[in-house]
Amino acid sequence: MRDNGRVTSATRQPETAAETLPPRLIATDLDGTLLRDDKSVSPRTVAALAAAEEAGIEVFFVTGRPARWMDVVSDHVHGHGLAICGNGAAVVDLHGGPGAHRFVKVRELARENALDAVRLLREAAPGTVYAVEQTYGFYQEPAYPKLHMETPDSLAPAEELLGPDHRAAAEPVLKILAYHPDIDPDAFLTLARLAIGDRAGVTRSSPSALLEISGPGVSKASTLALSCAERGISHEQVVAFGDMPNDVEMLTWAGRSYAMGNAHPDVIAAASGRTVANNEDGVAVVIEQLLAELA
């Protein structure tokens, strides 16, 4: 249904008491949400983000990307300059620019939990291959496909990459990437969550059968909640945007939330509202409406 020009989801009531509070923070995913499919930030979106911060509304980029992939938005941070990366595994100060990002908070995946997750998922889904994302390094198994923009720092079985003798053993693990060449992506996510249980959190942001495994309780939502609590911002004062299953908890937590026009069905069900697709500047459309309401 439509409400004042906004497409809204029928699964949550968009006009709640919480949504009458003026927003203090905008939390937006990047790929498939703020960014267009060519990974650009449109001029309209750049202007909307700047206008929001000029109006006193903080903007947080909340993404599954590692810190080193944040250069695409580093030029658009203002004020605090913080972003939540790795699906909540790290809070990063982007002010240093490319190659100089500073970790403000790290919520690592303990190696014992990581090894358990690898073992349990291997047993449940033979053929699964892994990569390991650390604060300053990326490592993968030899059979892991070329899915990312970089060459791994080393190739070895996950058990070796996560072992005590690996060269990066002192560096925190942010998340594990698990890929399966044959299983349906949604079925793989369900299978992995059942197999791994409370040893780790499992989600996905890719259209392929690529899962992201983080520490127990680590998610975009939980790290965003910590960051908001530090600022005295309640969830009712947060407006969130997303498009994939790794955004669901954040969209459910925020007082007002929007699924993109290109969003996964689970995201549409979780959000209180809908906007147009990322290629149509859906985040900017809503920000412009919010600022008009405040004027």
Describe the fold and architecture.
This protein has 295 residues and is of the alpha/beta class. It has 10 helices and 16 strands. Strands 7-6-5-4-3-14-15-16 form an 8-stranded mixed beta sheet. Helix 9 links the parallel strand 15 and strand 16. The N terminus is likely disordered.
Primary descriptors:
8-stranded mixed beta sheet, 10 helices, 16 strands, 30% helix, 22% strand, globular, disordered N terminus
How widely separated are the two ends?
Answer: 26 Å
Percent helix among the residues?
25-40%
Numbering strands along the chain, what is their spatial order in the largest sheet?
7-6-5-4-3-14-15-16
**How many helical elements?**
10
Uncertain ranges: 1-15
Sequence of secondary-structure elements: EEEHHEHEEEHEEEHEHEEHEHEHEH
The structural class is: alpha/beta
Write the layout of secondary structure elements.
Blueprint: E1 2-3, E2 6-7, E3 25-28, H1 30-34, H2 43-54, E4 58-62, H3 71-74, E5 82-85, E6 90-93, E7 102-106, H4 111-124, E8 129-134, E9 137-140, E10 154-155, H5 158-161, E11 173-179, H6 185-196, E12 201-203, E13 210-214, H7 220-231, E14 238-242, H8 248-253, E15 256-259, H9 265-270, E16 273-274, H10 282-294
Parallel strand pairs: 3-4, 3-14, 4-5, 9-10, 14-15, 15-16
Antiparallel strand pairs: 1-2, 5-6, 6-7, 8-9, 8-11, 11-13, 12-13
Helix pairs in contact: 2-10, 4-6
